[in-house]
Design goal:
globular, Immunoglobulin-like, five-stranded antiparallel beta sheet, 7 helices, alpha+beta, about 30% strand, about 350 residues, four-stranded antiparallel beta sheet
């Protein structure tokens, strides 16, 4: 449990970490706020998945068509969303003026077991932060820059006081959103969703006292939530199938290519599907495959090949629905983890 400078207690620690960041024209990716604690913001290992998240390498227009951009790293899912916001601060790089918009990135980190909640949570956070702080975030950026100044003039002191207040307001907003959101999902004990039940089970095993999340007479006892009821027979076999599934990934030694076998898990034809494979090099995302499949038949397995780039070990695999431009599947492929299945053609 953490506290702000106002002494308020914040629940949900260990369930979600929220990062509000901006792109600094001199220093790169800089955190404005980390909820619930900022103690580790100078820890390079802790911040590595944040600073190298693929959201940074997409323009606002490119990522706007997607709900969010995800990164999977060591048992956690990092959901990212980028937007532009008002600016009236003097920039420190040639070619930028005071009105050049700020690049703001929101990243929500959840344990894999709580992945099902990431979509909704980051959409709510992004909407509320944009609505309530779109004309204030540049002042918070000024605060982060000027607090490092050795000599603090009265004008700088004024900006620092305002920025500190804005930061506390933003921290409180994020805390309240997280509290209300997990309150609502705990109430939703829909046994039809295996993923949701898995997430609720995770919350229970973490030992959280839900009384501070729900409160009043509506408190829910986790013992009443039956994750798997042995007395109830399911009408259909339990399944966690996604619409598309990567069945196998192999390295072709002779041609230095990746071979990726993907299956349409549904019983429906999927039309106008786009498959993309990218990699990140020197802070820029580069596309090495962009293939459109006009018709992907039910339960059909397709093979995709892409070249392996020298000294690049991590690749991002996407399946996107062509008409809505909605991401259906994303997967990070780390060549260092592919120990089985190397072959020659």
């Amino acid at each position: 449990m953490t506290t702000s400078s106002k002494g308020k207690r914040y629940p949900c620690e260990g369930l979600a970490d929220v990062y509000v960041m901006y792109f600094d024209e001199e220093r790169g990716h800089i955190p404005l706020l980390i909820y619930p604690t900022e103690k580790l913001k100078d820890d390079k290992n802790f911040m590595r998945p944040i600073k190298y998240h693929p959201i940074w390498f997409l323009s606002v227009n490119e990522q706007e068509a997607l709900d969010h951009i995800d990164l999977e790293f060591k048992g956690y899912i990092f959901f990212g969303k980028k937007f532009l916001t008002l600016s009236r601060r003097k920039k420190r790089r040639a070619g930028l003026n005071e009105e050049t918009p700020e690049n703001i990135v929101i990243i929500v980190c959840l344990p894999e077991d709580l992945e099902i909640f990431g979509d909704d949570l980051i959409q709510i956070l992004t909407k509320e932060i944009k609505e309530q702080f779109s004309d204030k975030l540049y002042r918070l950026i000024e605060y982060e820059i000027l607090k490092e100044e050795l000599i603090k003039t009265p004008k700088i002191q004024e900006i620092l006081e305002e920025g500190k207040y804005i930061k506390e307001e933003l921290f409180d907003l994020i805390a309240n959103i997280c509290q209300k959101y997990f309150n609502s999902v705990i109430k939703e004990t829909d046994t039809k969703s295996i993923k949701r039940q898995k997430a609720l089970s995770f919350l229970a095993l973490k030992g959280y006292d839900v009384s501070y999340l729900v409160g009043g007479d509506n408190s829910i006892d986790f013992s009443s939530i039956k994750i798997f009821d042995p007395l109830k027979k399911s009408e259909e076999p339990l399944s966690l199938k996604e619409p598309f599934e990567i069945l196998n990934i192999e390295v072709l030694d002779d041609s230095r290519e990746l071979e990726i076998l993907v299956k349409n898990n549904t019983k429906e034809e999927k039309k106008n599907t786009i498959v993309k494979i990218t990699h990140v090099q020197e802070f820029f995302e580069k596309e090495i495959l962009n293939q459109k499949i006009d018709v992907w038949f039910p339960e059909e397995e397709l093979l995709f090949y892409c070249p392996i780039i020298a000294h690049i070990h991590e690749y991002l695999f996407f399946i996107i629905e062509g008409e809505s431009n909605t991401k259906i599947l994303s997967k990070k492929i780390d060549l260092n983890l592919i120990n089985i299945g190397k072959k020659t053609r």
